[in-house]
Amino acid sequence: MRQSSAAFRLLAPLIAVGVLAVGCGPSPITPASTPTRSVAPGPAQTAAAPPLRTAQAPSALDLPVGSLYKNPANNRNEVVLADVRHTAVLIGDSQAMPKDSWPQQGIAALGYKLHVVGMGGTGFVAANGKTGNYIDALQRGDWTLPYGDPPLIVVQGGGNDASQKATDAQITSNAERLLAALKKRYPGASLAMIGTLARGAENGGGRRTEVDALLGRIAAKHGIPFVSTGNWLTRYNAVGDLQDGVHLKPSGHVKLGAVLARELAALGLTARPDSAAPTK
To answer: How far apart are alpha carbons 179 and 173 in whole angstroms?
Structure first.
């Protein structure tokens, strides 16, 4: 017994040193199946990530001027303008199409830039074989309206509807379809209508003057400012400024452009440089 005790006393220090050596060795390896805080989150943890940003609306900064943008809201191509906030849209026929036409001069005189669409031989009902009437041309993409929010949209016409013998019902139906489409697409824009250039009922204006009066009634029904031009050729002594009985010479465009500017200004449609909306 004494020998065993003595032997244990001799071995005890060695056992203690061994225990200490084992305690200071490397830690056990963490099983690969046990994630630590530094491990990247797995698929189940990515659900809280922020959603992808939606595409920004086009502007002069990210789409070149003149680019076509397919607006998902209406599935139509629209053109990017340099300054749509100060641009008036003019929809018209051959009276409006020539550069510096009387409708273009009248609107530009109020301080607007212009985006002109339409074509000679067209109208609310009339088509010319290359493009549809106003509402069909819009829906088919024969011409394109601007992307963004123009402050003013002016619709001019009616002469070709008169010459192509469109009925009052046809003109009314298509005019209302066009106005509804424009109001839906540009709810913040001011709408205005210009009637049919003619000599007046007492001077042989005939169907052209009648269509002018019809368009005035349509505009009144929808609360849209209207400029009647059904007697302007005689009222403003512009018969001598006609080049073919219907269309004006440059002198006539200047004369009636000034008249139109006064009429539109009187309706409160003058542009404001510091605002996208006309004065009211």
So the answer is: 10
Contacts of 136 (CB under 8 A, 6+ apart): 127, 142
* pLDDT for the residue 236: 98
Q: Which residue has the tokens 């824009």?
A: 189
Q: How many residues in the chain?
A: 280
**Are residues 119 and 153 in contact, defined by beta-carbon separation less than 8 angstroms?**
no
Considering the segment(s) 68-266 as one domain, its CATH architecture is 3-Layer(aba) Sandwich (3.40)
Cα separation, 262 vs 106, in Å, equals 8
Q: What are the domain boundaries of the chain?
A: 68-266
CA–CA separation, 13 and 21 (whole Å): 12
Question: Model confidence over 223-254: pLDDT tens digits?
Answer: 999 999 999 999 999 999 999 999 999 999 99
CB 196 within 8 A of CB 162: yes
Residue 125 and residue 177: Cα distance in Å, rounded? 11
Q: pLDDT tens for residues 4-58?
A: 444 444 444 444 434 333 343 444 433 333 333 333 333 333 334 344 333 445 5
